[in-house]
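Run log // design_07
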């Protein structure tokens, strides 16, 4: 192995080991378990479906507000296995401790054993469907359908894992909930039974020993949704009986879910009035219940299993327990203060009771962190507002990027085919500024995040800012690089790289609630680097590296570029920063290949095998080291390796299946797919155009070929190894289009063509042929 090959191998190994060290250090969040002298005896879970922090602030709910003042609070992310949340899916996810689906019509059919079901009883139907006896317990008649639905899905959670863990520890369980209601004289009636709360505490066989879910919980009430509401006296009595038995008791504010379901039939004003009335009535029940709770020994959790059916959004979450100080909630699942997932509920409750969290559970223990500079509830309301606003602008931003890509391609293609230069309005300088403006638009979508346009109530201000920033970006880059023809492009690409790397180092604040970042309402991730950012950052750093080596040749430049690639890869991969494992796998081989080529070395089969083996070996080392740590300290990678080592390869195969499904779905889920053929056609036109400058540059400047090869590897692996699929190469193609249009429209006489660094002393580069008449071609010698 040559010295340079060993050096590249060591560089990639160093970056990977540093990323692994960071992963080990960030393995698990501090536990929310109480200290030994503050034992939790019982856990009360209060469910407030379809309730946001804005709803709480606007309502007359003194008991809930007092509880929240004593608790650590946060926004709850309700998305589970589907694209939209539902109460049934949320409760099923709580019970599984992981992402679950519940779209079957039987998902909410839970009954007390003696309740009538058709011409027989629920106990008899349960026995017919499962072969088990009810034994006086609440039974779920749809348990078989739920299990089959999730077994056929992409996550395959263990339904009832929460209930099984409690039962195995000898802890009691009870559910008090009934959100039944039906509107029979409509085209698509809602299911009559709405008792999915049982899904949260049932065991794997679909049973809960205590509680009340029958019609006796309801009373007639004219003017209320479906003409019924919860009988508070009956609900409180059921709670008192269950609470005395200990364990975990879940009480649902069923009037809230009923009001939200009834929103399909009401005016918006009536929906708001009914939801507020339901929340205030639930607050009365909460006040009576909390009088029986001992803050010194009992824990109280508030969860919102689903957002409103009338729109996206985040729900409420809180935790009051001995030894847990008021503040903001966080979990290792979210890795961002102020946010927790629905399926973090079960691991937290088990941890509070001192029960080992099953390894099958995907959720993590919630913890309390310090508050923020402003009122906590105001902070959480703003977080929800920003997320909803961001989601409403994704389609707009995507359409604008697509339109800009088409327009830039058309203008550049027409200019390239204009042999006689009759279209004076298509001067090269204007095309270059257009290319810079497109790059500026991508950057503007991130810079707009901290300005919180969603809170102003003026959506036109957001669009105006994007336009103004894009134009200003092009002007500033042109001004800053006026002394060298390619400097404006270098400034634009450098700004993209520095902005994203600095942001990831500072906590990824520009990622949250920006259109090409992510939002908590979507819920796939709320920390680190998102896949669209990986695409833009990777494209920018590779193109910037190639541009620097071309315009400032020499070994010093090459090593500076390699250092830039290593730092970028480390920041993208390390969990405290980007935490993007897929980006690390895609970026490492592309960056290593680029570095190898910049050093003037050829790629042989042995080189590919060594670099590929290094990457695979490093990935195995990260997983095995994580697997050897204590179970409660392992990350999801370590848990996956543990299952594979124990012969449970299903989760590994399921992960691959999810990747394949997501990649295939991406071809129909985004308009950005059209960017790829548009940019491909533009490149063909530029290549085939008369006096093609692109063709001359490609043939005469080796670093351009090296850059494009590394770029193509990163784009392909980025698509193959990340859930976002075709979005990654599409956004990379947008950045590439801007760079190519800029370069081919630089005045030919001002652009030399130095060669890449080779093994021996650098040789003078051949001068670039003129594409327009000029006295003499200008020759630029390569540096040493």
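design_07 sequence
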């Amino acid at each position: 192995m040559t010295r340079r090959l060993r050096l590249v191998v060591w560089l990639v190994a160093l970056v990977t080991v540093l990323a692994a060290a960071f992963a080990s250090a960030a393995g698990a969040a501090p536990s929310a378990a109480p200290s030994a002298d503050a034992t939790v005896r019982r856990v009360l879970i209060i469910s407030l479906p379809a309730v946001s922090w804005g709803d709480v602030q606007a309502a007359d709910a003194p008991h809930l507000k007092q509880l929240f003042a004593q608790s650590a609070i946060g926004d709850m992310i309700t998305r589970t296995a589907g694209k939209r949340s539902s109460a049934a899916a949320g409760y099923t996810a709580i019970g599984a401790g992981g992402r679950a689906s519940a779209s079957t019509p039987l998902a909410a059919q839970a009954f007390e054993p003696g309740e009538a079901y058709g011409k027989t009883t629920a106990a008899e139907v349960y026995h017919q469907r499962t072969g088990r006896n009810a034994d006086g317990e609440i039974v779920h008649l749809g348990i078989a359908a739920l299990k089959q639905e999730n077994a056929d899905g992409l996550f395959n959670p263990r339904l009832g894992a929460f209930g099984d863990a409690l039962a195995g520890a000898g802890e009691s369980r009870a559910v008090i909930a009934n959100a039944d209601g039906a509107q029979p004289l409509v085209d698509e009636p809602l299911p009559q039974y709405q008792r999915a709360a049982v899904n949260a505490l049932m065991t794997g066989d679909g049973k809960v020993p205590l509680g009340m879910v029958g019609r006796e919980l309801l009373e007639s009430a004219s003017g209320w949704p479906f003409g019924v509401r919860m009988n508070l006296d009956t609900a409180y009595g059921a709670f008192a009986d269950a609470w005395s038995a200990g364990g975990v008791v879940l009480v649902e504010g069923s009037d809230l879910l009923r009001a939200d379901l009834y929103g399909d039939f009401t005016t918006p004003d009536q929906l708001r009035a009914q939801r507020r009335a339901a929340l205030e009535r639930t607050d009365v029940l909460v006040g009576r219940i909390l009088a029986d709770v001992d803050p010194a020994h009992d824990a109280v959790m508030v969860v919102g299993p689903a957002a409103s059916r009338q729109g996206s959004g985040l729900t409420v979450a809180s935790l009051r327990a001995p030894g847990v100080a008021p503040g903001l909630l966080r979990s290792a699942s979210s890795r961002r203060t102020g946010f927790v997932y629905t399926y973090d509920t079960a691991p937290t409750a088990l941890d509070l009771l001192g029960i080992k969290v099953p390894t099958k559970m995907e959720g993590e223990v919630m913890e309390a962190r310090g508050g923020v500079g402003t009122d906590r509830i105001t902070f959480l309301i703003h977080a929800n507002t920003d997320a909803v606003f961001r989601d409403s602008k994704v389609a707009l931003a995507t359409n604008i990027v697509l339109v800009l890509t088409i327009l830039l391609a058309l203008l550049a293609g027409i200019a390239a085919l204009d042999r006689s230069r009759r279209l004076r309005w298509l001067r090269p300088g204007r095309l270059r500024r257009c290319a810079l403006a497109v790059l500026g638009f991508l950057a503007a979508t991130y810079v707009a995040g901290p300005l919180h346009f969603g809170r102003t109530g003026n959506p036109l201000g957001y669009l105006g800012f994007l336009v103004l920033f894009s134009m200003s970006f092009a002007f500033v880059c042109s001004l800053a690089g006026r002394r060298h023809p390619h400097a404006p492009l270098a400034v634009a690409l450098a700004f993209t790289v520095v902005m994203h790397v600095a942001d990831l180092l500072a906590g990824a604040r520009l990622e949250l609630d920006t259109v090409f970042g992510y939002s908590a309402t979507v819920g796939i991730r709320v920390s680190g680097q998102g896949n669209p950012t990986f695409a833009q950052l990777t494209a920018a750093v590779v193109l910037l590296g190639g541009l620097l080596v071309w315009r400032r040749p020499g070994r010093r430049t090459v090593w500076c570029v390699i250092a830039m690639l290593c730092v970028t890869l480390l920041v993208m991969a390390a969990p405290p920063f980007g935490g993007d494992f897929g980006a690390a796998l895609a970026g490492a081989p592309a960056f290593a290949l680029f570095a190898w080529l910049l050093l003037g070395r050829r790629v042989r089969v042995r080189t590919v095998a060594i670099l590929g083996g290094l990457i695979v070996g490093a990935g195995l080392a990260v997983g095995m080291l994580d697997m050897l740590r204590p179970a409660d300290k392992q990350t999801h990678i370590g848990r996956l390796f543990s299952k594979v080592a124990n012969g449970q390869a299903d989760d590994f195969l399921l992960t691959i299946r999810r990747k394949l499904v997501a990649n295939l779905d991406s071809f129909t889920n985004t308009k950005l797919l059209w960017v790829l053929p548009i940019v491909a056609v533009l490149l063909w036109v530029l290549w085939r155009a008369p006096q093609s400058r692109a063709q001359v540059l490609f043939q005469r400047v080796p670093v351009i070929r090296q850059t494009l090869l590394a770029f193509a590897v990163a784009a392909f692996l980025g698509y193959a190894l990340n859930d976002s699929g075709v979005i990654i190469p599409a956004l990379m193609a947008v950045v590439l289009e801007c760079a190519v249009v800029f370069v081919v429209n630089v005045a030919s006489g001002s652009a030399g063509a130095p060669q890449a660094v080779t093994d021996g002393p650098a040789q003078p580069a051949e001068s670039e042929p003129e594409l327009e008449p000029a006295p003499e071609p200008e020759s630029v010698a390569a540096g040493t």
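The radius of gyration is 30 Å.
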